[in-house]
Amino acid sequence: MLDVYSTSSISKNFSPPTASPPPSPAVSRYELQKRRDWNTFGQYLKNHKPPLILSRCSGANILEFLKYLDQFGKTKVHNCCCPFFGHPQPPAPCTCPLKQAWGSLDALVGRLRAAFEENGGRAETNPFGARAVRLYLREVRDSQAKARGIAYEKKKRKNNKRQYFQEQEKEGDGHSTVV
């Protein structure tokens, strides 16, 4: 049975919804990782002896941070004097250090570079984009590739449109299209 008092009180107190912001979409995995990395870097600055402030950070401080992260790495990087240096799949364990993989460092720097600018930093003063950082990443990439015995080769971009039309021509449907 419908309660007359409750429906009338609802209609009296009801006001149409105001323009509220639409529900925010779920935060992407990238955004979560970027936030976590930014917080980790902030914690590093706070715990640094002497403590560092973001506005005074340079490329040298970023390199120090990246080298600090090596202690948490999981990638075996053979030293040049190791018998397994240059072997992609060594047959036995060795005492070479574990370090951060180049790809992980490269992605981390990219996320922190973006986070710096999102948090009010100017692109021109972004320490994550410093020349020293780029050179360090290149050196890490090359040294890790040599240690594994695999030369790093930049992936070539495919032109999907051209590939699609080439496949269409091979099928020989009688129609030729020039792009």
From TrEMBL:
GO terms for molecular function: DNA binding. Residues 167-179 have a biased composition (Basic and acidic residues). Residues 1-14 have a biased composition (Polar residues). GO terms for biological process: mRNA transcription; response to light stimulus. The keyword Transcription applies. Keywords: Developmental protein, DNA-binding, Nucleus, Transcription, Transcription regulation. Residues 1-27, 158-179 are annotated as: Disordered. It is found in: Nucleus. InterPro entries: ALOG, ALOG_dom. GO terms for cellular component: nucleus. Its main location: nucleus. Residues 29-156 form the ALOG domain. Belongs to the plant homeotic and developmental regulators ALOG protein family. PANTHER family: PROTEIN G1-LIKE2, PROTEIN LIGHT-DEPENDENT SHORT HYPOCOTYLS 4-LIKE. This is Protein LIGHT-DEPENDENT SHORT HYPOCOTYLS 4-like. It comes from Nicotiana tabacum. The gene is LOC107774048.
